């Protein structure tokens, strides 16, 4: 299909052909959800850990005699019922990552792009170079105001000063085309893709 190409101000600059096998797929939200779970699981550090009885510091001496106290029988003050004692069945350091089929991951990215295109939330931009003319957050925000403030900008290269300017903008992010993923897409309202990035996306997803 043919789709319009805009500049960063929203003016039409021409048209580009989009592959139907990438941008015209009916989304299945169960697949997208599974890939989102996979991505978020990979990002978890898994460093949470609690102490078992063996890890808690304390004396191994019986805290008081077995009978005659009128209280419950206890053998150690390191047990879970005491303050500062062990945690029973608590979390321990582990890897939360799980495997996911590569074809499924690729299909989910296609579905996300197709969904954004269908809803009019995906825009093809001829060039992002004008964003680097003024290295200020307010200048960048003003130039992309046509698309709103909640946008993900996808390109092959970003100037260092531009990255610092965008870093101060809430909900506006930059991502290189090689790192384009479902999680970053769904976190933003609009998706802006440069023409040069479009070619790499189509090569990657064919």
From TrEMBL:
Keywords: Ribonucleoprotein, Ribosomal protein, RNA-binding, rRNA-binding. InterPro entries: Ribosomal_uL4 (IPR002136), Ribosomal_uL4-like (IPR013005), Ribosomal_uL4_dom_sf (IPR023574). This is Large ribosomal subunit protein uL4. The gene is rplD. One of the primary rRNA binding proteins, this protein initially binds near the 5'-end of the 23S rRNA. It is important during the early stages of 50S assembly. It makes multiple contacts with different domains of the 23S rRNA in the assembled 50S subunit and ribosome. NCBIfam families: rplD_bact (TIGR03953). GO terms for cellular component: ribosome. SUPFAM superfamilies: Ribosomal protein L4 (SSF52166). Part of the 50S ribosomal subunit. PANTHER family: 50S RIBOSOMAL PROTEIN L4, LARGE RIBOSOMAL SUBUNIT PROTEIN UL4M. Belongs to the universal ribosomal protein uL4 family.
């Amino acid at each position: 299909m043919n789709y319009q190409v805009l500049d960063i101000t929203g003016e039409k600059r021409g048209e580009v052909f989009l592959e139907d096998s990438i941008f015209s797929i009916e989304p299945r939200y169960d697949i997208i959800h599974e890939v989102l779970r996979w991505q978020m699981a990979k990002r978890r550090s898994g460093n949470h850990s609690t102490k078992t009885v063996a890890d808690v510091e304390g004396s191994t001496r019986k805290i008081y005699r077995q009978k005659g106290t009128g209280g419950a029988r206890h053998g150690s003050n390191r047990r879970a019922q005491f303050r500062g004692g062990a945690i029973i069945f608590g979390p321990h350091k582990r890897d939360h990552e799980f495997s996911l089929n590569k074809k499924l991951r690729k299909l989910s990215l296609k579905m996300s792009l197709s969904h954004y295109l269908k809803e009019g939330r995906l825009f093809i931009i001829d060039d992002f170079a004008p964003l680097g003319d003024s290295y200020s957050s307010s200048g960048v925000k003003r130039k992309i105001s046509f698309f709103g403030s909640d946008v993900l900008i996808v390109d092959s290269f970003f100037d260092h000063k531009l990255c610092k300017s965008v870093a101060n903008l809430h909900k506006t992010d930059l991502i290189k085309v090689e790192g384009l993923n479902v999680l970053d897409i769904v976190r933003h309202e609009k998706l802006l893709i440069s023409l040069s990035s479009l070619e790499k996306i189509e090569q990657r997803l064919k």
